[in-house]
Design brief:
It is a single chain. The protein has 166 residues and is mostly helical. It has helices at residues 13-20, 27-37, 39-44, 58-67, 73-87, 105-108, 113-119, 125-139, 153-160, and strands at 90-94, 97-100. It has a two-stranded antiparallel ribbon. The longest helix has 15 residues, at 73-87. The termini are far apart.
């Protein structure tokens, strides 16, 4: 048996999953639009039916983006996993594998975190992760990144570019 714990409460599973997987987005309409504007997409669209862009937590997404600089997907994934294991809260053990939450901004903003991130293989990105966490902790409430979903692309870009490493 699995449970879904969210900040919205335990009775909101369906809404959380619908939001995360973007289930209210009409994929057929999007695929037609994308196929019309991109000949490459039109050739492969039939092979990837049902592929969705996840609506991930914006804070986690921002840090993953910072880690993506000069990296490939498997290395980015490994970095995020190490970040969660070192600084996140242990959530569960499934078939012997531990799962951890994404660390809080407060934790990532602590003094000394940059050095720990360097030890974890983040290289020059360690400074960006730490500085971004400090800025988020100092200047943003927990919904400030989420609110960027409701502004224009140029406004969101301007705000995101204020973070080191973006």
């Amino acid at each position: 048996q699995y449970e879904c714990h969210t900040s919205r409460g335990r009775d909101d599973h369906e809404a959380v999953l619908r939001d995360y997987f973007n289930l209210d987005v009409n994929l057929c309409k999007l695929y037609k639009e994308w196929s019309a504007s991109d000949v490459n997409f039109s050739h492969i669209a039939d092979h990837f039916q049902g592929v969705r862009i996840l609506r991930q937590d914006p804070t986690e997404t921002l840090f993953a983006f910072i880690c993506s600089s000069n990296n490939h997907i498997s290395r980015i994934s490994a970095m995020m996993e190490r970040l969660c294991r070192r600084f996140g809260v242990k959530l569960a053990v499934v078939e012997g594998e531990e799962f951890h939450s994404f660390p809080s901004v407060e934790k990532l903003a602590e003094e000394g975190i940059e050095a720990e991130l360097r030890e974890l293989g983040f290289g020059y990105r360690a400074k960006y992760v730490w500085k971004t966490a400090q800025r988020l902790h100092r200047e943003c409430d927990k919904h400030c990144l989420e609110s960027l979903r409701n502004v224009s692309y140029s406004e969101a870009l301007a705000e995101l570019l204020k973070f080191q490493g973006v």
